[in-house]
Write a structure and sequence with these properties.
Chain B: It holds the Pfam family Pribosyltran_N. The structure holds two protein chains of two kinds. By secondary structure, chain A is of the alpha/beta class. Chain A is 27% helix and 19% strand. In chain B, strand 11, helix 6 and strand 12 form a beta-alpha-beta unit. Classes of the chains: A alpha/beta, B alpha/beta. At the A-B interface, strand 3, helix 2, strand 6 and helix 6 of A face helix 1, strand 2, strand 3, helix 2 and helix 3 of B.
Chain lengths: 442, 323
Amino acid sequence: MVRNIVVLGGNSHPAIVESVCNILALPACNRILTKFSSGESRCEIQDSVRGKDVYIIQTGFGGNGSKLNDHFMDLCIMISACKTGSARRVTAVLPLFPYSRQPDLPYKKSGAPLFKGGSENGSKKDYTFESVPATPAPNVPRSAGLINGTDITSRLAKTTLGTTPLPNGTSNGTMSPVRPTNGDGSYFAGNGLGINNNTSTQSIIGSYTTHDYENVSHVGAFQAKPGYKQWVAQAGTLVANLLTCAGADHVITMDLHDPQVQGFFDVPVDNLYGRPLLKRYIQTHIPEYKDAVIISPDAGGAKRATAIADGMGIEFALIHKITDRQNASMMLVGNVSDRVCILIDDLLDTGNTITRAAKLLKKEGATKIYALLTHGVFSGDAISRIKASAIDKLVVTNSVPQNEHKALLGAKLDVLDISPIFAEAIRRVHHGESISVLFNYD
Amino acid sequence: MSAEMANEIKLISGRSHPDLSDKVAKRLGIEVARTISLNYSNQETSFTVGESVRDEDVFIVQSTATGDVNEGLMELLIMISACRTASARRITAVIPNFPYARQDKKDKSRAPISARLVANMLQTAGANHIVTVDLHASQIQGFFSVPVDNLYAEPSFLRYIRENFNAEDCVIVSPDAGGAKRATSIADHLNTAFALIHKERPRPNVVGRMVLVGNVEDKVAILVDDMADTCGTLVKAAAVLKENGAKSVLALVTHGILSGNAIETLNGSVLSALVVTNTVPLGDKVERCPKLRVIDISPTIAEAIRRTHNGESVSYLFTHAPV
């Protein structure tokens, strides 16, 4: 029984809240956390938190009908409510840190069609504040340049690469980005660019994309200004700042995609590792592990994979992605023929990278392929992709709810329980003990 | 400010209310900036910027769609933060309906003051200025340490009443004590009578007993409020007014949130019309509810943006609605 400590759970992962509370032998804090019919979050904390050490568990995962951004706002509101409720210290526990992995630049290997309409003419160019009438005149064409009769659909269709639909016919239904649904349903309302939704039912099979914006057909009619290189906002710092702004005094998370995210915070961040768990799994569940090869599916994860390979004294190989102007291809650095392969990565999102890597390994003669990842988000059509892949066994932790994924993938998926690690971290943080032992226990 | 082209208005639109942004842009005679928001398949929001905002005066128009408040808010925060990292000179968040405006006080133990949290978040993200319409409580302005321009739909309502009714036949009614000030202000401007309905509210989104204070007999009763959510209050108030002999009852409400069964409630009510502004995206509600009328608020917002950008006074808009 740990005293003076309150564990408050969000809606994103009730199972881990329960499990952590069981280990700490205390009941979870009573709270009401729902939504008003207007869509605003409603949060009422029913147990006193005055002077208490509060731990709020909320993972960065949306699914099963809930939304990631809702969970994040709920977390901020709960933190804020505890702070105004005179909690001594509020710690945000995020098994999976939201927005921790944001790709750098929109990567267009096909070279999306540059829209070379005469968009730099007309009102915009001549527009200065001196020339704007005191009372703005209506009926000024909003976007004269865009209405030039070009059928962007045909251009997109031409530049889309492999247009083979997915084998099981799931196409993009779940994978496509959420298009604007209000108003007339078009982001570029009324600009006359009849966007044909048929283009978005094609999925680019020949390219190594994990995110939808890389697929030109999803982005639709969006084009950057000529001469301006479009970029994607990085929300990592923002999320860190928002948590601190809401009142978090401490953050506990696991296997941050970029450890640098810790530097975004002005408050202490404890980044726990799932590595010991994965290591133990390898040692206990893979009989031939001494002769296996640890594989990193991309260069970015090499450090993570080598750490495990070195720790266990087994071989290591790396898959290198080559991107030239026309094609992206994968190259294996190392030898895997007639060996058992263990793919190691931190996050499984759409599963594209890992399934592709598995395919390559099989081609290179691997006998059996394991894939061990800390976070299994399984977004988009990841499940069907994994099912169809050469991966023999997939191992993830329950940093996000895995019940549904387990039900769909069956014996192919093994789930490791991380709640003991978090419970121990919470206990140690509460008592002011060192948690560094959690970083390298084996 | 020597360079002629530098520091223009950049109008950025979120996904929540592109229609309003388009109208504002049209009024200002400019194009909406080329940006796009999407959700990744893992539900994280991505925001792509397709044109330079360096040293520009950025206005980000983002309402919050009913049911998707957090999604819209997160998108807004990401947009603000992106513009700040892209060296915008000033970032103004134009939020016609301020989210969480009703959670503005600690009315019970450990209740979150979410409105203040939202205010802090907007500032953390990098907003230098806020433009909003009819804040539920104007004290929310005090949650900010940056300027907040709280515009009023009142001038637009006054014009609507003058154009559609004979002011002498009307009584302005506030459906609750909290809105009395808003309603009396309209009544004073029109020089009409005023009445008030007192209500008991046992739980949120649930309406209790109602008592009318004032006389509405043989008059057109005009209910005035800042937001219509589930419409329970309005419909009950309308019934009370009808019972007290009102000739007809209509409601003028700034924010038509219209959540839950609001449309069905309205369709089955004695209200002859519900007049809202387009601060909140209404979607197909206009088609589903023949009683719903919409006043376009975009001229007021556009004019506020123009005046803010040019460093002119905005206070004229508190009493006048641009045509």
